[in-house]
TrEMBL record:
<dbReference type="Pfam" id="PF13561">
    <property type="entry name" value="adh_short_C2"/>
</dbReference>
<dbReference type="InterPro" id="IPR051122">
    <property type="entry name" value="SDR_DHRS6-like"/>
</dbReference>
<comment type="similarity">
    <text>Belongs to the short-chain dehydrogenases/reductases (SDR) family.</text>
</comment>
<feature type="domain" description="Ketoreductase">
    <location>
        <begin position="6"/>
        <end position="173"/>
    </location>
</feature>
<dbReference type="GO" id="GO:0016491">
    <property type="term" value="F:oxidoreductase activity"/>
</dbReference>
<protein>
    <submittedName>
        <fullName>SDR family oxidoreductase</fullName>
    </submittedName>
</protein>
<dbReference type="InterPro" id="IPR036291">
    <property type="entry name" value="NAD(P)-bd_dom_sf"/>
</dbReference>
<keyword id="KW-0560">Oxidoreductase</keyword>
<dbReference type="InterPro" id="IPR057326">
    <property type="entry name" value="KR_dom"/>
</dbReference>
<dbReference type="InterPro" id="IPR002347">
    <property type="entry name" value="SDR_fam"/>
</dbReference>
Amino acid sequence: MNFSEKNILLVGASSGIGLATAQLLHTLEAKLFTISRHLSPELAELGTTHLEADATLPLAAELLAQLPETLHGVLYCPGSIKLRPFERIPLDDFRSDFELNVLGAVQVLQATMKKLKKAEGASVVLFSTVAATTGMSFHTSIATAKAAVEGLTRALAAEYAGSNIRVNAIAPSLTNTPLAAPLLNTPEKAEAGAKRHPLQRVGEPEDLAYMASFLLSDHSSFITGQVMPVDGGLGRLK
């Protein structure tokens, strides 16, 4: 894969999966533009054009003006993990999960769609979760929000296929990121998490970065409207 002369916008690239994808795309010669609430030292090392913003808020005109006229790809990867029994989930948690995972993506894509259309062949990649299609206890809020992401993915793929804009999503399982640290921060938790997967390990950010880069690349030019599982077999195998 080569991204030379490709302008790629990554939202939520300061750590975890977003950072791993930015690092990979950097080695593949992409011209990177990143949006997050803060610029991490690891992301700063890549020399991206960084815009400091909260993805849940409308993007200011002065920020959008710093993006190029043409975008070849947008990756939206902010996420949340709030696992608790259904009866103990405040309604505000449902709202915040939906705002971050769904409405944040909507706002970014509405703001950048004209730039994607100018590419004459662009790609959008969103993030779902294995829990959106595989029922898991205590995942009610995030599963609800990510199921909406999957619906958004398919609807946008249908609407923009005629503009040669592909829209796909990735559905990971438990992945070794700062976001998931509370679920993996002891040897016992890490072992239990690994054993839930048929491949006997949890995901690494690089596992998701390779899939994201593939979907952003021209190698996936005949793929749209799909939700790609990167879950160690958890969603399909027993």
